[in-house]
User: Fold Ionotropic glutamate receptor C-terminal domain-containing protein from Bemisia tabaci.
Amino acid sequence: MQKRKTGLLWKNETQQEIYNFANGDPWLYTFTIGLQNVKIPSRFLRSERFKLAIWAQGRDWLHALDIYQLQMTLESDVTLFSLELDAARIMDAFKFEESWPINMTLAGTYTRAGGFDWILNATKYERRKNMRGKMISVGVALPSFNSLDDPNLLNPYYERDKDYYGRRDYQTWQILADIHNFTTEYHVTKIFGKQSNKSHALFDGFVGLLQNSTVDMGFSLLRVKEREKVVNYIRTDINLPPYSIAFVSLHPKSFSRWRALLEPFSVRTWMCIAFILVISTIVLGVGLSFDKNHSPYLSATIFTFAAVAQQGLDLRKPRRATNRFLILLTLLFAFMIYNYFNTALLTALLSTPPTTINNLQQLIDSGIPLSIENVPNNEALFIKTFNISILMKIYNEKLQHPSGFLSVEDGLDKVRAGALAFETNKRQLYYQIEKRFTDNEKCLAKVIDAFPYRLSRALTIRKDLPYNEFISTTLLLLIERGITDYIDELWDIQPPNCMSRDYIPAGLTELLMAFCILALGFVLASIILLLEIKVQAYLHA
Assistant:
């Protein structure tokens, strides 16, 4: 008996016999209902933490309770003992409303000879889950809809980016109400609950309604320690997967792509090619000198460049077979090099650039300006609730600029322009990317988790109310049977798919090396021209 957490309501002629019957347990809080109207403190009868013994004079203690108009509810685990000589009937009792009759079920019997004989083996949850006639008032935040009147409110494909948590919780709550057979009175607010007076821990939104006892429960909130001072949370998380936030940015262009003309070959390969071409040019120049060529080495150099550029033969018909054979080998070598180079160059220009930003620290070090959604949750996430150094570093060093806090629309517009990286919750982020970004921008978008773990949300409940155990157990049953997974699949938004990239023409960045080579040629040609002018002027003088 002592293992069972119970309250005891006794009926007998003498208090002493009942006290002896209870084995004199010192933990019993005892109240006598006699000729005087003795009020029972509600903190005992509305709590699961105390064990009670209530003695009533007269034959019918229920009648005595009605006579003295004791307004009470039996919401904890209460057992009634009705003593008759040497035996007692043990009744399981509860009532959630003061105006209800006491709901009683025979739990067992007691005899002095045989002791306790329990016949009620159902769990407390099964015995109490039928709350027929109970009205529970609930607070819900719907900043966009601001009411429950819209017929499409529970359509997960209608205005998917608006009031996701409130609408999803509303659907889950209807299932809970059907299981427990209670009715609901809804109080709609525009905000969840922000601390309006920090010195006195006063909140607005439906958290404030819970705080001043206007409502019994509230829809899901992040588990934040400031709110835990004034409300309790249901033990089971309301949504799976939990709340998570992330930064999104378009991956910056790689400044190394200006070396695209050099990247197809390694440095050692370029050195080997240059060495072979120089040797070939020198040997060809020597051979052309025997053909009585007026400028053999200049002709050999021009031929080598023409062969590499696939511009054909720029020489008079060589007379010697050695020169012809060397020219043929040079053309074949240049042709093979050209094909390898061209293939590698196209692969480098058309392939997806490698990602260099894969975590939050790399995002910070990249120099891209950061911005976060201008909502109260972010103040708690980045500053107050979680002592995470990297988030505090972001707040102190990267958000202190005019664009540090933006709306989702403005933030993602700046992301598309390549101006910054923006943070919001993942579900809204995926929806907006799917809605606003082009296919190519979806492929370039990089989503980086801003939190080392995901945050849980849970239904809120007014302190000292007895529904936590029932709602938590029911939510666990919904999770076990896959109902919450089904609801999550209806309401959740998957990451956008990168279907196809736009054709991106080569820009100045990719062609910079070609322009550099051309500019270098202009400079060298100008220098040679000036030298020739000087030489000709000197010779004529």
Q: What stands out?
A: Residues 511-541 form one domain. The chain has five domains: 7-127, 129-243+454-494, 257-345, 352-453, 511-541. Confidence is low (pLDDT under 50) at residues 1-51, 55-59. Residues 44 and 248 are 53 Å apart (CA to CA).
